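Record 1 of the preview.
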Amino acid sequence: VGAAAGGHYTTLHVTGLVLLSYVGGIVAGGLAAAFAYVVMQRLDDPTAINIALLVTPFVAYLAAELIDASGVLAVVVAGLVVAYLSGRISNAASRRQTESAWPLGAYLLNGALFVLIGLEAQSVAHDLAAGEVVRLLGLVVAVWVALIVIRFVFPQLAVLVIRALDRRPSQRARRMSYRARVVGAFAGFRGAVSLALALSVPATLHDGSPFPARGDIVLVTAGVILLTLLLQGPLLPAVVRWANLPADDTAEQELRLAEQEITTSAISALPDLAAEHGVSDEVLDRLTADYQEHLALVQARQRQRPEQLRAQAEPKLGEFEALLDGNQTQPRSGAGAPTLQEDEYAPLARNEEYTRLRVAMLDRKREVLLRLRRNGTIDDAVARRIQTRLDIEELRLTGVESYE
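->
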């Protein structure tokens, strides 16, 4: 872009600019995420936390632009870091609020990008001659094919590099088949990031003249995106059927493994947490029995075949039968028997102890979940599923706040 704007660059200068763009973007995004981490750890209000999350990418972009680095890369890095630390910088209420509103917001933002690229492409296409249209259509097809080929070749090159550095026999078990690479090549779609990069090209040079070939960049980007959505997308199911890949139940296995690990850790932590929060033995025994029953259920599901697992509805983590039952506490006879007033308030006391202990258990479960996620035992998608269940359980116990 700088060269097209009339600048004069040497090879060393260009190398420095590329490094500044990438390294500076990564650093700016990381610093913005670190700043957001410090700020959001001091916030409790769900709306304030989500506003800080919304402002973070703008801060990352502006910080990168101030040092002439890549603002788009800074936003991506900040988003990745914030997503990785989301369990520490947000609470259950803020996450549920985000999960309810963000899908609509992301859909509207993606739609706005497509509207912008459509307006840009339409204004450029009106000024094109017939020969230019044919040339650009050929360029669109060539770029689209090149992207598919690159996505097919790059994993193989990466595997060759890894094998050159790591000669362990276990690396052979991780190789991708030819058909799997074809599916991976066809699964790469262009979208919001490509649109943002195309629209970030300036419209004019420093002297006010039009930026050279900006219209071609916009049209080719729009054309490649349309090809991926209208042609490559419908072809993908047929490619998957042709590949005949074995069913991947890794996510289900990781989910069951995480449930077992979390439940086991919860059972071992129950006595200490009960003593710390002043919970009676009655509530502790009932909750321990419930967790042990749930652990037995998880272990039984792990022994089932994957087809049976998929055929059954997933139980909600932590959905155990209620502790409170008016018939469970029998009045004691003799001089030490509680009065009628004590019997009336006993369920309230047990309920308060029950809620206090369950909330403390949720914090311990999140610690185990974070450890499993960090050491690579479970995938991020599986971690989010379990995190959502824990958040719902916490809101069920503590009450759902209304947002105005």
